[in-house]
Amino acid sequence: MNKRIAIVILNWNGRKMLEQFLPSVVEHSADVAEIVVADNGSTDDSLDFLRTNYPQIQLVINDKNYGFAEGYNKALAKVDADYYVILNSDVEVTPNWIEPVVELMESDDKIAICQPKLLSHINRENFEYAGGAGGFIDRFGYPFCRGRVFSTLEKDEGQYDDVREVFWATGAAMFVKAPLFHKLGGFDGDFFAHMEEIDFCWRAKNSGYKVMYCPASKIYHVGGGTLPPSSPFKTFLNFRNNFALLYKNLRRISIAYVFPARIVLDYVAAVRFLTEGKPKEFWAVVRAHFAFYRMVPSLTRKRRKMDHRKVGEIYRGSVVFANFLFKKNKFSQYDEKKFSR
After folding, report:
1. Fewer CB near the terminus (10 Å): N or C of the chain?
2. Mean local confidence (pLDDT), 113-122
3. Are residues 155 and 261 in the same domain?
4. Rounded distance, CA 311 to CA 308, Å?
5. Which residues are CB-neighbours of 109 under 8 A, at least 6 positions away?
6. What sections of the chain are H helices per DSSP?
7. Residue 175 forms beta bridges with which residues?
8. Separation of CA 53 from chain center
């Protein structure tokens, strides 16, 4: 393989994760890729650990914690490669996980982004929440995956072993052509963390590029290493950033009906948090909406610079209603015809 590939792992106080998972990355990647750890202002002994145990690994040091999105932007500006592999620090990789993805991406100039099969490190036969077998969204912006619909995780039985175009690729293990990453403006730093990969993939699709899934590459992801699932800050980021990516990327004709519906659905979710005895989660949703409104002027400026087109791989229905009312908790239960352009 004559392409320059850089695996870039963003670290923030992640000594334990690096100690556990970096050995598999070195073992199965060092012969075909450069390994880079970008440190996001860690205050633990991550850097000392790396310098002592992995002197061959390149370090890029950010002066503070810029979050996932801007942390990667700053780091990748200093990494020279043909392909970036954006890899979480809590990922175990397997033999030959790089080559099939790059081969697939090399086969088509329009492929900008690709992800491998993402399985759970804890329940290794199951798909993992953060990406499964490739990501999608419904018409109201709710993300789901092949292998994961809301909190239901499927067992991997080979049902998603086909190469196919998807809507978004997981940020836990995202392969991206380096020149296109910069051409598309990288991640939106205002997102800080969560859903920046969906926004990035949507911008790529709006620019005429493809996002793909490659099942021949398999990795295992812990998930939730930085923010646990019950974190109100994570809830805040998810709700705020989901509104932001919709406002930036939707065609104007869609905004008029999507936003009123989403406001109602979000407050239904907020009330549900209250009934479950989670007042901090309730206020996280409320704060997220007001934070989004404050972002609108900035988002409007970004939106004006973008193309907006009708793209595929968006489910032309409501995954919320399909899941909660009709118990459709597997991707295979969704009509493929509703994913057409």
Report:
1. C
2. 97
3. no
4. 9
5. none
6. 15-29, 46-53, 67-76, 99-106, 178-183, 196-206, 232-249, 252-275, 279-304, 319-324
7. 85, 114
8. 29
In a shared domain, residues 85 and 61: yes
Does residue 27 belong to any structural domain of this protein?
Answer: yes
10 and 32 both lie in a single domain: yes
**Is 326 inside a domain boundary?**
no
Mean pLDDT of the chain: 95
Within this chain, do residues 276 and 131 fall inside the same structural domain, yes or no?
no
Does 211 share its domain with 243? no
341 found inside a domain: no
Helices in 54-191 by DSSP H: which ranges?
A: 67-76, 99-106, 178-183
Q: Do 50 and 133 sit in the same domain of this protein?
A: yes
Same domain, residue pair 181 and 134? yes
Same domain, 183 and 276: no
**Residue 173: how many other CB atoms lie within 10 Å:** 25
- Judge whether 208 lies within some domain: yes
Residues 47 and 53: their CA atoms lie apart, in Å, by 10
Dihedral sign (CA 136, 142, 148, 149):
negative
101-139 b/e with 16+ CB inside 10 Å = b?
Answer: bbebbeeeeebbbbbbbbbbbeeeebbbbbbbbbbbbbb
Domain around 117: 5-221
pLDDT digits (tens, 9 = 90+) for 247-290: 999 999 999 999 999 999 999 999 999 999 999 999 999 999 99
Residue type for position 246:
L
pLDDT digits 0-9 by tens, 185-225: 999 999 999 999 999 999 999 999 999 999 999 999 998 54
Contacts of 108 (CB under 8 A, 6+ apart): 210
Q: Is the pTM of this model over 0.85?
A: yes
- C-beta of residue 89 within 8 angstroms of C-beta of residue 18: yes
